[in-house]
Design goal:
With about 160 residues, this protein is α+β, with helices and mostly antiparallel strands. The protein has four helices and seven strands. Helix 1 packs across helix 2. The longest helix is centred in the N-terminal third of the chain and has 18 residues. The protein has a single domain, classed as Gcn5-related N-acetyltransferase (GNAT) (Aminopeptidase, 3-Layer(aba) Sandwich), CATH 3.40.630.30. Strands 1-2-3-4-5-7-6 form a seven-stranded mixed beta sheet, with helices on both faces.
C-alpha cells in the first residue's frame, strides 16, 4: 500500500541539505555500530561523490523530502527514510519505483541492520554474498542482495 500523501519525484539541487540530513539521521538509527569517524567519512562521501553519481528519487510529502533512493544503473546505493516517516511505506514506494525503472536490482546492506535486511527480503531480494567488511573496508559484515527482474515489475500494482 502506498502512502496517500506521498509523491515520487526526481531530486533537484534544492533537496541536497534535506537529503544529507535524512541520510545522517537514518544512518545513526540503522547503523549504531558505526563509529562517529566512520559516519563522518561516509557522510563526506555522500556529499562529495555519491549524490553526484546517483540517479536520486524523492518520496515527497507536501513538497518536503520524507525519503530518498539513489540508483546507479541497477544498483541501489542508498535508500533512506527520515526518522518520523519510518514504517509509513515511503521506502516501499521508492523501491517499487526503482523496480519499475530498472527491473533487476542489487545492493549492499550491513548484516547488523536487520530491519533493512528484512525489508529487502520481504520485497523479493535474496542474499547472494556475505563479506566480513563493507565496501569501505570497515570491519562490519555486509550482505550483497539481489532481486531479479520479474514479469510483473512493469505493473502499477507492484
Amino acid at each position: 500500500m502506498y502512502p496517500a500523501s506521498a509523491a515520487v519525484r526526481p531530486y533537484d539541487a534544492g533537496d541536497r541539505a534535506s537529503i544529507i540530513s535524512i541520510w545522517r539521521r537514518s544512518s545513526e538509527i540503522g547503523h549504531p555500530f558505526l563509529t562517529d569517524h566512520q559516519l563522518a567519512l561516509q557522510q563526506h562521501l555522500v556529499e562529495t561523490v555519491y549524490l553526484d553519481q546517483s540517479e536520486i528519487w524523492i518520496a515527497s510529502v507536501e513538497g518536503q523530502p520524507a525519503a530518498f533512493i539513489g540508483l546507479i544503473d541497477g544498483y541501489i546505493g542508498a535508500l533512506f527514510v527520515d526518522t518520523p516517516a519510518r514504517g509509513l511505506g515511503y521506502g516501499s514506494l521508492l523501491l517499487r519505483h526503482a523496480i519499475r525503472l530498472k527491473g533487476a536490482l542489487s545492493l549492499e546492506v550491513y548484516e547488523q541492520n536487520r530491519q533493512a535486511t528484512d525489508f529487502y527480503l520481504r520485497h523479493g531480494f535474496r542474499i547472494t554474498r556475505r563479506a566480513e567488511q563493507d565496501s569501505l573496508g570497515f570491519p562490519h559484515p555486509a550482505l550483497t542482495m539481489t532481486r531479479p527482474a520479474q514479469p510483473e515489475d512493469l505493473s502499477e500494482d507492484l
